[in-house]
Specification:
With 499 residues, the chain is an alpha+beta fold. It is built from 7 helices and 24 strands. The longest helix has 17 residues. The chain is globular. It starts with a helix and ends with a helix. The N terminus is likely disordered.
Length: 499
């Protein structure tokens, strides 16, 4: 009874949280004309590139400024996804997930990244086509960027240059996760010898690149008879959190004679050398589940093949996970990325999409040159929730349950809520209602909750049912979930006073 009383008291503390109003620093305002009229910028694409097939495209534009203005506001979007760079620095990624009738665009003031004289703005855009995540909607490959006022000089049009990158290939998930429904998109193979290193910077020579092909002028959802295939609406959630996250431990390894990696490599203090014509493997442990962009930095090793395999837990001979801390007698199964070294110095490899993992197997096959692994770490990413509730109990096991539960809730919240970051990454209403309540109690932040309600509403069919999950390229229906969605609206009204 004592523990029950303690739990009740802790719950009472949490119940106070929804009254908190989250206030964030105001971002750039979206001009009303952008929401009601055709944009001055156009959607652009690579000439001759297939509209609906896999492809990775590099776009860039050089421009000059006499002086850096106080503000330089741009609005960007792409199909399927993009990362935006200013003078070599990645400043933005998106678009936040939506559907063709609610296609999100991001708004950012990039003035602080500019300088007098030559500047470069660049974007990498990719289309995973039939292998795209199930939660990824698409029409065709394209990029759009529009600037306010004087920033209109960077509007997307034929003044932009483009190159279809041949460095990227997809790795089908296939049998590695055939034991479970897996629809998170493909793995990636990146060939460093085909990658135009430094393409995001001002000093890059793009004279061999093509002028971009202009598709159609961009238009907002609020405009009548927009010619655009994508009905643009502003992003309604903050940018995702991103922070360096170090792997914790080398759990086992194999390699040539004398090969003995230490945890100092994972701390970033001790580069790891692998001799020529050898094979080495490391099983690395994050110590907990995470969602992150793995980032590997290498030097030398022309012809080396580096394969990363990601897993939540290892499997025994009966294909059971069991205790996730235990690795004895177990092997790793999971989707993979692969990097092919060109021998350059301090090459940075990072997949285009984040991965979910606790364990990573790092497998290296070197050729005629030795390879140095300069560093390897993760860049954690998730919705930027801030925990504002607290839990108190004299039973330490309950505090552990609370900690694990909150981590799980964080990993299942990105640009949408998701049922499972490793296997599906889909926003199911039944899961989402529970996740939304956790968010409200723990943080008082209702922006992702409202986004979920709007997304599910956008899935409504002519019969009146909402889909069971959305966004989703494949429609799916679980009729009671439409009632749960009504419950979500009631929750928002009950806990936030939003009618």
């Amino acid at each position: 009874m004592k523990i029950i009383n303690k739990i009740f008291c802790a719950t009472a503390i949490l119940l106070l949280l929804p009254a908190i109003q989250i206030r964030t620093a105001p971002g750039p305002q979206v001009a009303p004309d952008l929401l009601n009229h055709l944009w001055s910028a156009s959607w652009i694409a690579c000439p001759g590139a297939p509209e609906h097939e896999f492809g990775v495209y590099l776009f860039r534009k050089d421009f000059s400024l006499d002086a850096v203005p106080e503000h330089f506001v741009v609005h960007a979007s792409a199909d399927n996804r993009y990362q935006l760079y200013v003078n070599g620095v990645r400043v933005l990624e998106g678009p936040a997930k939506g559907d063709l009738f609610h296609w999100r665009f991001e708004t950012l003031d990039i003035a602080s990244y500019l300088h007098p004289g030559s500047n470069a703005i660049a974007a990498i855009v990719w289309n995973f086509a039939e292998a795209a995540p199930m939660a990824q909607m698409t029409y065709e490959t394209g990029l759009v960027l529009a600037g306010d006022g004087a920033a209109a000089l960077v509007n997307t049009n034929r003044s932009w240059k483009v190159l279809r990158s041949r460095a990227f290939e997809m790795i089908a998930i296939g049998g590695q996760t055939s034991h479970a429904y897996t629809v998170v998109g493909p793995g990636e193979r990146i060939d460093a010898s085909l990658y135009p290193w430094g393409w995001q910077r001002t000093d890059f020579d793009d004279s061999a690149w093509q002028p971009a092909n202009k598709l159609v002028r961009a238009g907002p959802r609020g405009m009548q008879d927009t010619p655009s295939r994508w009905m643009l609406v502003p992003r309604n959630i903050p940018l995702m959190q991103q922070s360096v996250q170090r792997l914790k431990q080398v759990r086992r390894y194999s390699g040539p004679s004398g090969f003995q990696p230490t945890d100092a490599f994972l701390d970033g203090h001790s580069p790891l050398s692998i001799p020529a014509n050898s094979h080495a493997t490391l099983l690395l442990d994050q110590a907990f589940e995470t969602t992150a962009y793995p980032e590997l930095i290498t030097s030398g090793g022309r012809g080396a093949v580096i394969t990363l395999t990601y897993a939540e837990a290892l499997f025994d001979s009966h294909h059971q996970k069991g205790n996730r801390n235990q690795i004895e007698g177990k092997h790793i199964l999971g989707y993979t990325d692969q990097f092919l070294s060109d021998g350059g110095q301090h090459r940075v490899f990072q997949p285009l999409w984040w991965r979910a993992y606790r364990y990573i197997k790092l497998d290296v096959m070197t050729g005629a040159e030795p390879l140095t692994l300069d560093d390897f770490y993760g860049e954690f990413t998730a919705y930027p929730f801030t925990q504002r509730a607290r839990f108190e109990s004299d039973d330490p096991s309950l505090e552990k349950i609370m900690r694990v539960g909150w981590r799980t809730a964080r990993l299942c919240a990105h640009e949408t809520y998701m049922d499972c970051p490793y296997y599906e990454q889909l926003q199911y209403v039944g899961d989402t209602r529970i996740q939304a309540l956790i968010s409200l109690y723990m943080t008082g932040d209702d922006r992702l909750v409202k986004n979920a309600i709007e997304c599910i509403n956008a899935s409504r069919t002519s019969e009146g049912l909402t889909q069971s999950r959305f966004p989703s390229r494949l429609p799916q229906y679980i009729p009671p979930f439409s009632l749960y969605w009504i419950g979500m609206m009631h929750d928002l009204w009950w806990y936030r006073g939003d009618a």
